[in-house]
Design goal:
This protein is mostly helical. The chain has five helices and no strands.
């Protein structure tokens, strides 16, 4: 029975991370920490590393803290929570950094309805280069209006 709770917590955490991605993007990245996120919208540097990547490090640390709480302090839900955050981070990296922004040249030929919708939604977000007016949404499940035929 405990494994069912772990699976439920893992899936719930993964889904909550989609909300956290939206919330962080709208109110933190396009808010008080725009100074870290703006280089993601304006490629005014020649580096592979972006200041925006600091947000990835933040969520990685949160995930690691959950693993530590599970391993050393007996917080049994720390493992499925940490794994849910980690799994979302890997998925986000694959979709956002690899598929959409092509930081690694993979998945270039993906052309199904989901791939087109994700690309369309992200392109509209990046249409505005400034802090304001950029439509914010979760990465994996943007509004259905972007998935038109």
């Amino acid at each position: 029975m405990e494994i069912l709770f772990w699976i439920l917590i893992f899936l719930t955490t993964f889904c909550i991370m989609e909300f956290m991605a939206w919330f962080t993007h709208k109110y933190v990245m396009h808010g008080f920490l725009w100074s870290l996120h703006k280089d993601h919208h304006r490629k005014d540097h020649g580096s592979w590393w972006e200041r925006n990547d600091v947000f990835f490090i933040f969520y990685a640390v949160v995930s690691i803290v959950c693993f530590v709480l599970w391993q050393y302090y007996g917080f049994w839900a720390g493992l499925p929570i940490g794994l849910g955050i980690f799994a979302y981070g890997v998925t986000y990296f694959m979709v956002h950094d690899i598929f959409i922004h092509q930081r690694f040249k993979m998945f270039r030929n993906a052309n199904n309805w989901y791939a087109k919708g994700i690309r369309r939604a992200h392109k509209i977000h990046h249409k505005h280069l400034g802090k304001d007016k950029g439509e914010c949404y979760g990465m994996l499940f943007p509004p259905l209006k972007y998935f038109k035929k």
